[in-house]
Amino acid sequence: MRLSVRTYIHNPLRCFKCQRFGHSKTSCRGTLTCARCAEVGHESTDCTRTEKCVNCKGEHTSFSRNCIAWKREKEIISTKIKKQISYPEARKLVNSQTPTPGNSYVSVAKKKSFSAPSVQNNPDASAVTCPKPSDSSAKASPPITNLSLPSSPSVPLRGTSSIDVKF
Ligand SMILES: [Zn+2]
Ligand SMILES: [Zn+2]
Ligand SMILES: [Zn+2]
Fold first, then answer.
1. Which of 14, 29, 32, 60 is the most exposed place for a label (fewest CB within 10 A)?
2. In which band, very low, low, confident or very high, does the pLDDT at 166 lie, cut at 50, 70 and 90?
């Protein structure tokens, strides 16, 4: 008997009250936020204001499938299922792969700019009379290159093919 492993990756759970991901309206501890304009205090039903996303501040509704926060949330869920890890672990993994356009990218860039001084493997340099204990500094910690997760965007999006494009 062969087990057909079907890894169905469900869509991110979005709270209908505060529009955040990962919990439902019934367990929400946030404030009522409009899914259309991201303002607090009213529902999106009668809202006619400019679209603004709660989660990524983009110019779309909070339930838009073009939302980068939604796509990232989906990626976290698929990573969690594929790698069989916990949600916080998957979120950390995805966030480390896709740097947010904010201070986290700057901090990474700053770390990368700190490069070791050009070490010259010149044996004659040891002949210099100045005693330098440079052996310990040569053993610098290598950069973390553990980000070799295969990004596979070919996740079957079942149920989202409701757009009938007819030309
Ligand atoms: Zn909520
Ligand atoms: Zn609104
Ligand atoms: Zn968004």
1. 29
2. low
